[in-house]
Amino acid sequence: MNVGFIGLGIMGQPMALNLVKGGHTLAVYGRRAETVQPLEANGATACGSPRDVAAKSEITIVMVSDTPDVEQVILGENGVIHGARPGSVVVDMSTISPSATRAMAKKLAEKGIEMVDAPVSGGDIGAIQGTLSIMVGGKPEVFERVKPVLECVGKTIVHIGPNGAGQVAKACNQIVAGVTIQAVAEALTLARASGVDAGKVRDALLGGFAYSRILEVHGKRMLDRVYKPGFKAKLHQKDMAIVLREAHQLGLALPAAALVAQQFNAMVGAGEAELDNSGIIRVLERAAGRGMVEA
Ligand code: NAP
Fold first, then answer.
1. Residue 217: inside a domain, yes or no?
2. Which of 37, 144, 163, 165 has the fewest C-beta atoms under 10 angstroms from its C-beta?
3. Which amino acid residue places its CA nearest to atom 16 of ligand 1?
4. Ligand 1 atom closest to Cα of 66?
5. What is the Å distance from ligand 1's center to 232 Cα?
């Protein structure tokens, strides 16, 4: 199938490569040449704009950073909406606002273009391995059309409901991921401050009810103090802001999510926006003093 891919960052790059491996003809757009070259080397066609990508594609996938970026790529000058044919589908796999998603789906529908929101979980490792969990919002028949393409990048693919429902599921995912990462950071900080071997604490916890993939992957990054992203702190900060905005609109108290949002605010404010989200432990270490945080 002719598939388009826009946004070739930490996630987009390996996802696009998996689509080529899956036998699809790929048209790509990336803002920076160095992100496009590896795809071209694997047989993808580089395009000059999101509009050009959409003109070549039955399905156009978007994987950029934040809500304004998706709006620019889809609705902006030289955006997808100006190139996509009626009947084609836009699949937004970025994590963005559910309400903005519904509004974009409506604008695309006015031109006969279908849209599904299909945000993912599973991190850079899941993107490389093609094992992402994908949460889809949109019409059931459109979901069925895009499913074979999504199967090239993901393993668990769930149709949640209408447009925006996929993004709501992803917001739910980010509450669990965010609160867990904070819990792991607190546990390892307590171990270290007590003079106990934090690595052994993690080993023990991995075998009991405290097990989580986050304790495994992010816990290891915290132990090694290696914060190469991964998932940039500024993006998790953005996700917690989405969660709290939705909660605000609904008149809902989500106290643990609010706390995690503050920790990411502190991390980004300390100049660590580009570090992996496991670096959230550094906020606790700075507060703890006693030389716990490395420079
Ligand atoms: P990333 O490495 O920062 O990549 C984002 C890409 O989007 C970059 O290539 C960037 O271009 C491009 N981009 C941003 N704004 C753009 C715009 N206005 N026009 C054109 N291109 C634009 O981020 P990522 O980790 O791949 O994350 C992408 C999305 O997936 C985010 O919504 C994130 O929350 C979500 N996500 C990430 C993970 C993870 O573990 N990393 C997991 C699940 C979901 P430049 O290269 O020019 O900056």
1. yes
2. 144
3. 69
4. 32
5. 9
Atom of ligand 1 minimally distant from the CA of 121:
43
Show the domain range for 276: 168-288
Contact 263, 182 (CB under 8 A): yes
Residue 294: what pLDDT?
Answer: 75
pLDDT of residue 293: 86
| Positive/negative CA dihedral, 229, 167, 257, 270 | positive
In this structure, which residue's CA is closest to atom 43 in ligand 1? 121
pLDDT at residue number 295: 59
Q: Is 147 among the catalytic positions? A: no
- So what's the pLDDT on residue 144? 98
Q: What is the pLDDT of residue 4?
A: 98
Q: pTM score, two decimals?
A: 0.97
pLDDT beneath 50, residues of the chain = none
pLDDT at 197: 98
Looking at 162, 179, 197, the residue that finishes a domain is 162
- Residues having CB closer than 6 A to ligand 1 are 7-12, 30-32, 35, 63-65, 69, 72-73, 94-95, 120-121, 123-124, 231-232, 235
- Please tell me whether residues 75 and 120 are part of one structural domain: yes
Q: What pLDDT was estimated at residue 148? A: 98
The residue to which tokens 């993004």 are assigned: 167
Is residue 295 domain-resident?
no
Tokens of 196: 């106990």
Nearest atom in ligand 1 to the alpha carbon of residue 229 is 41
Residues 50, 6: contact at Cβ < 8 Å? Answer: yes
Which of 162, 197, 216 finishes a domain? 162
In which element (H, E) is residue 33 found?
helix 33-41
| HSE value, Cβ hemisphere, 13 Å, CA-based, for 98 | 25
